[in-house]
Amino acid sequence: MTPMVLKRWLVGDPLKSAQAGHQRLSKTIALAIFSSNAISSVAYATEEILLVLVLAGTAAVAWSIPISLSILLLIVILTISYRQIIYEYPEGGGAYVVARANLGEQPALIGAVALMIDYVLTVAVSVAAGVSALTSAVPSLFEHRVAIGLTATVFIIVMNLRGVRESGKFFAFPTYFGIGILGVMVGIGGIQAFFGQGASVSTDHQTAVEDLTLFLILRAISAGCTAVTGMEVISNGVKTFRQPESQNAAATMLYMSLILGALFIGISVLASHFGVQPKLDETVVSQLARLTFGTGALYYALQFGTMLLLVLAANSAFAAFPQLASILARDRYMPRQMATFGDRLVFSNGIFILGVIACLLLIIFHGDPHALIPLYAVGVFISFTLSQAGMVRRWLSKKGPHWQTKLIVNGLGSVSTGIAIIIIATTKFTQGAWIVFVLIALLVWMFRSIRAHYKAVSEQVALTRDHRPPLPRRNIVLVPINGVNQAVIRAVDYARSRPGEVRAVMVDVDTQATARIQIQWAQWGCGIQLTILPCPYRSVLSSLLDYVEDLLNKEPDTWVTVVIPEILPAHWWHGVLHNQRALLLKASLLFKERVVLIDVPFHLKR
Amino acid sequence: MTPMVLKRWLVGDPLKSAQAGHQRLSKTIALAIFSSNAISSVAYATEEILLVLVLAGTAAVAWSIPISLSILLLIVILTISYRQIIYEYPEGGGAYVVARANLGEQPALIGAVALMIDYVLTVAVSVAAGVSALTSAVPSLFEHRVAIGLTATVFIIVMNLRGVRESGKFFAFPTYFGIGILGVMVGIGGIQAFFGQGASVSTDHQTAVEDLTLFLILRAISAGCTAVTGMEVISNGVKTFRQPESQNAAATMLYMSLILGALFIGISVLASHFGVQPKLDETVVSQLARLTFGTGALYYALQFGTMLLLVLAANSAFAAFPQLASILARDRYMPRQMATFGDRLVFSNGIFILGVIACLLLIIFHGDPHALIPLYAVGVFISFTLSQAGMVRRWLSKKGPHWQTKLIVNGLGSVSTGIAIIIIATTKFTQGAWIVFVLIALLVWMFRSIRAHYKAVSEQVALTRDHRPPLPRRNIVLVPINGVNQAVIRAVDYARSRPGEVRAVMVDVDTQATARIQIQWAQWGCGIQLTILPCPYRSVLSSLLDYVEDLLNKEPDTWVTVVIPEILPAHWWHGVLHNQRALLLKASLLFKERVVLIDVPFHLKR
Question: B603 vs A597: CB contact, 8 Å cut-off?
């Protein structure tokens, strides 16, 4: 199977550009694609809060309820604020577009970079947490967690390269299955809790290793902030919704937030009620499920559903990251290849790069979600704050109906997420958040350099009005030969058909052969002058290059055209039997100014 | 440090071709370079004989003396025969040249291939045995034997790339040191043995695991044949001696044989006298040295000298293998790159290939000389027999003074080495000798195929007397553009200066951009027709290739010239920011017939 056939089998046949319109998403499919990112975080958000609180002993765990409620408040604020953004920016683009329009280049780039880092982490964290859900249920797979995570990531990459609608269809069922079964657990658990029956309450008491300080509570809040990651995804992808795009996107945003809020608060309350504490080898959700369902078919269904939901959450980053990269590439902050549709109408390069970096993170952090989470959430909150701040500026300048209310909503969003950044940065800085800040600075610098480069290029190639670049004053045509044969004669004939002074040049490696060729040249050379170049160090290439260099130096207005007679073997493996001189010569001459290369091929038949 | 600077530091500055004459060797240096191969085999030949005999119990070891004497006889016969070859073929070349002149192509190729295999094994076996000498003295290094062997091989490669005379000087002292100290041991041991004093006789008796059959004795003889490997090296390298080449080479041959014979028979006699038996972790020579010198400074000096001698023996193969390869390349049996002098006046490619294969063998066989030795000696004896047989044919046809005597000498050589092949093949076939036979067949087939290919190529490019290949009937000049800028205009101007129909072609990736460019083209295009190519699958490359293919198919007499405007970045790392379309286009068009490529560069300054 050739690589091309393999590619077709994996990602499908190319799609025509004209088919692009049909790739729009219905609300049902869009909810599956875009919501898994945010909703799946309920699988680890409560656990991250408890992991911090338990440091202050079992009693401190009671703080998880007020902390969860504060996160819920954040969800409400973000939902309202983002619905306003969706209506104002039906083109999509989220933080970057909003900040660029209202705050300027630098904040926009910071927002974009922060989001991109977050998408990469979304893939790594979600896949790692999904594998944790699996290994909680099947502990024997624990040692293979990195391999399982990588397999899942590669699978998602391939699915995304096939195109966004198909991946939506493919992923809708498992997403809804995961949401449904988590809902069932919260429902049954809630009823049990209400009637005080069912589950056995955990009795082992953790001793405190830290005091219950304000700092610890803030750390717990910043750990819980992972619950809201992914809420911005819909605002980036408004364009992929069916018409009317904004209404559909806003409705989807609302459904998503309702599900997210209900599941998150439900799990937090149940965990608190049943006194569940985080364990090294089993997730909090898995413990809750065992308490609610017992370790039966329903328990395994829930673990499997959670895993699917998490692994597919990664998928939402695969929809968002390449889209953002393509917007940046269109604005020349990223290599232009990122803006090109692949042959399945998706931004293949973005998908590929995201996948590769996420795989590297899984390998480096041994597929451990807790190790990755401190890096997470920083980026997304920076982008939240920037887009909300951008909206505030927008309302102030644009005004329009009800602008005061809208200003207050976005203002609240911007202040609350800004506070969250300060909390996250202070409490997680030494745990890895500093890496994200350094990365943001580096990438912003890189993106600006890329734009500067593209600008420099376009200035250099720009045509000045009505001033055509001058033609070379003189053109010397060189034909390097190493014998007299059909390939050489063909090149010489081609060179003679050009205006300009034609010279054949030959490097004197072997004096006897040179003498013989000079005699043959007298017959076949059509009176063209044959220059013999000395070659004291037996390097044909450097003798030729020196000669060309000399010509160019002597006459600064002269261009040199080198006509290379290239003998091409009938089979590639014959290549080892021929000196690769033509190739080396072409590669060396390419980087000389005022040198034009002409390749006259002679194809061997056998 | 750039790769080029590193190369210069390792192998030295390039030497001029005119300096070639100065690289001739004096007898003293030539003996050091060429004799280490043959003489160093005394370090393991006796041990290999004993290893076979001991299978039939301690009593059978007595057979080592008559077996060693038979090997000594072989040394005498070969010395006389090879001196005749040296005088008859002052050009050098050994088995291949002699067999080619007198027996024809097939025997010559078999001889050459057999020798080449043997040179590779010489490097691997000698380095491995040298490391054994070291680890006999310093057992703690045993576990690092592969790494030590590889380091030594790389060192020899680098030294040889510096040029043959310098390596001769560098290696002369250790070679003579090794020979000298082995001579001292044989001398002192001989005196001790004569007066019946000194060493303690080993007392542990080995029980027989096999009967002392004729087959076992023949196996011991074939094991001992490793002693004569390397005797042919001088006859290959006559050209590198100072004038008079033949006399100097013949004299050197004699000295070498005298030293070889004396050391080999001395070690065998001493081993037999002192009852030394082969051990797994210590070489026979090391045991002998302990018995003769005690484990003092002299013992360590001997082990170190033996090691140096063996490692440098590999060096003689580095002089001989590239020389043979270059002769084969000149006769077109090997890729012509093998015949090119490198910039230090040595055949760099041959040195490099020999080194790499030897390193692979060391890794595959874990640096164990006993595992490599069964492969060894087959090849060299095939080449002995073929060159002696060739000389027999020569005397029969050429005659000349004393031809009958010379005929008898070479006849004896040919018959005795022929018998040795039969013995080696029968006794070692299943131990690995079969691999060598298969390899010989394969390589002979490969070499013949290479020659057939070169013949086919020269037939295809040959010019028929006074019949010049016809010029293309029509020439269409295409300029692929993706915008209107200085690079494109330069290419268009260049194309217009050519005779032929010029067309600009553009692939319609983005309809809006295409419309804009068409308007610009009206101003700048000089009335040249702009063809817009459809691009349903967004692949610029395949749209262009399809168009060229169409043109070629429609008119079989037409040639297509593609003028590529290539924007070249100021720094190579800018390359990632540009589509590599020019490169891909050039690579794809190169393999199309009737397509000439013109590369018009536009160099960015920043």
Answer: no
